[in-house]
Write a structure and sequence with these properties.
By secondary structure, the protein is mainly α. It contains 17 helices and no strands.
């Protein structure tokens, strides 16, 4: 009688190989889990600091736009869309960035992203109509971020296996570190130099930092030869990918909403503008401290379980601490705790 063979279950390592161009951990060219990989971690931390970290400080610009009369025709919703464009175009252009990376190489696309992001901030400093901000601080900055993030985001999984979540945690902590520096730094620049020069300075600083990181980042494509497909529809037939995408969509929706609305919430409960800036700064401080710790926990206790628990805890904290907050102290406490676990997707998504 013929013997039936059960299909082999798909494990997390195989899923990473399919989605990120990685390889099995028992392959001859398995990730070295260190060495030059730590230089790559530092480069990716810099990218995150001066892409997502700058975006995380948008609440300072939002507060300035809402409290001034620079663009009389603008509605509060316009400024929300401008900040949202940073994320929207950064995500929508992912297939194009992947295609360009495969065709021209990561370094060319990274340098293009550096120039686009810088140009967006510099152009925004000359804006006289709100639609100018849509094109500059919204569209150009968002495109620049995507052309920086896409070529670099899958590189860490090529260098790390057992310590992958730790490496991702350290790298993604850059968004908190950059957010801390640029939140209080931007507020200080606006007070001392004005909004226009704050935007120009931000653009030039991001250009120098990201180009420096570009010079040091290295992939291992010559070892693993990834497919680098712009869009692989066959992955949508796998339930693991569908569940990952659903979780990513829901968690990122809440992440972006909180990130961009917290400063406005602070002013709505009658906190001063400087206190609203401090709230955003503390949120990013929590991110900088919490993400490496989450990486350690993920490597030790399973990335899936860590993601599930922290996603639930983050939602619980919003109800327990954010909604009842009516003064500076409780809002700071919420910002620190929620900032530490907010965006857990970035630490554990490379399964």
């Amino acid at each position: 009688m013929a013997r039936t063979v059960s299909p082999k279950p798909i494990d997390a390592i195989e899923l990473n190989a399919a989605t990120q161009g990685g390889q099995r951990e028992d392959a001859p060219d398995a990730p070295p889990d260190g060495g030059y990989g730590w230089v790559v971690v530092a480069s990716c931390l810099t990218f995150n600091s001066f892409t997502w970290g700058v975006t995380s400080s948008f609440g300072v610009y939002l507060s300035e736009y809402l409290s001034s009369d620079l663009f009389p025709e603008a509605r509060p919703l316009d400024y929300g869309f401008i900040g949202g464009f940073n994320f929207a175009f950064a995500m929508l252009l992912a297939p194009l960035a992947t295609y360009l990376t495969r065709k021209f190489g990561k370094r060319s696309v990274l340098l293009c992203g550096c120039v686009l992001q810088c140009s967006g901030y510099v152009a925004a400093s000359f804006a006289s109509k709100v639609w100018h901000l849509y094109l500059s601080q919204g569209l150009l900055v968002g495109c620049g971020i995507r052309f920086i993030v896409i070529p670099s985001m899958a590189i860490l999984s090529q260098w790390f296996s057992q310590k992958r979540s730790l490496a991702n945690g350290i790298s993604s902590a850059g968004s908190g570190i950059g957010g801390v520096i640029l939140t209080w730094g931007t507020a200080s620049m606006i007070r001392s130099m004005g909004l226009a020069w704050a935007l120009r300075t931000t653009g030039l600083v991001t250009l120098v930092a990201n180009i420096t990181a570009t010079m040091f980042v290295q992939d291992r494509n010559h070892n693993i030869r990834p497919n680098q497909l712009a869009f692989d529809v066959t992955l949508l037939r796998r339930y693991e990918v569908i569940l990952l995408l659903l979780w990513a969509f829901i968690s990122m929706f809440g992440y972006i909403t909180l990130l961009f609305s917290l400063s406005d919430f602070a002013t709505s409960i009658h906190l001063s503008r400087s206190q609203a800036v401090d709230i955003v700064g503390f949120l990013n401080l929590g991110t900088a401290v919490g993400r490496p710790l989450i990486g350690i926990l993920s490597d030790r206790f399973s990335r899936t379980n860590t993601a599930a628990v922290l996603t639930f805890v983050c939602g619980l904290i919003c109800f327990a601490l954010w909604l009842p907050a009516t003064s500076f102290g409780p809002t700071v406490l919420f910002a620190l705790i929620c900032g530490a676990i907010l965006g857990v997707f970035w630490m554990v998504s490379y399964f």
